Amino acid sequence: MELKIYSPQDTGFIKKIDWNFEELKEQVTAAAQEYETSVYTDETIKAAKADRAQLNKFVDALNGKRTEIRKKLLEPDELFGQQVKELTGIVKNAIDNIDSQIKGYEERQRSEKLAKVREFYEENVADLAEYLPWERVVKSEYGNASKSMKSIKEEILALIQKVAEGIAILNEVDSPYAGDMKQVFLRTYDIGMAMAERNRLEEDEKRRKIYAEEQEKLRAEREAKRRLELSA
């Protein structure tokens, strides 16, 4: 399949529109100079309007002729465009057929790869599945052909180890906030954030105790003062 243009050839395209440009330019320049220096009085304002209308008519005629010529120049291109569109439409149907099959193949490959990834996950997650469900492990990129199984397996094993170590650490934590820490860890899989949550809760508890002690002290002082006033 090869596109061949029989007419016009490269040298056959219109290079220039021949018209009496120089002749008109000379006449227009002379007339314009005359009108540019014209002075109209109240009595000749009617003539001014007539002159303006004549000049506008000339400008409109020029632009109108340009539009007419442009339309004629574009007629071959419009037909050519319609013919090209017809041909590309025919080819597009073939492309769509091939494209749908390629996409179907790629989707099957993607599904098969993700199935293998899940199989590897299930073989290695063991009893951590309740803490590390498949939905938290799988990534969209794992189905891409550009993502190697080797790198995927390394990522999954690293995540499993990270979760296992985190759970083991939290199981040894002796703190009333162990449950809160585990919630943070299972949300982020970040043991550092879990530890930070314990520190935050402990600091909050200290501040509550200090506040409660201060309030109790103020209450005792008010009570002592009341008793003193009653005994006076």
Description of the structure:
The mean pLDDT is 90. The relative contact order is 0.03. The chain has 232 residues and is mainly alpha-helical. The chain has a domain at 115-231. It has helices at residues 21-36, 45-125, 134-137, 149-171, 178-188, 191-231.
How would the global form be characterised?
Answer: elongated
Order of helices and strands: HHHHHH
Q: What's the pLDDT, averaged over the residues?
A: 90
| Biggest beta sheet summary | none
Number of contiguous helices:
6
Structural class of the secondary structure composition?
mainly alpha
| Strand tally | 0
Distance between the termini: 118 Å
User: Which spans have pLDDT < 50 for at least 5 consecutive residues?
Assistant: none
DSSP strand content: under 5%
Oligomer: single chain
Radius of gyration: 44 Å
Give the % helix.
Answer: over 70%
Task: Throw out a few tags for this protein.
232 residues; single chain; mainly alpha
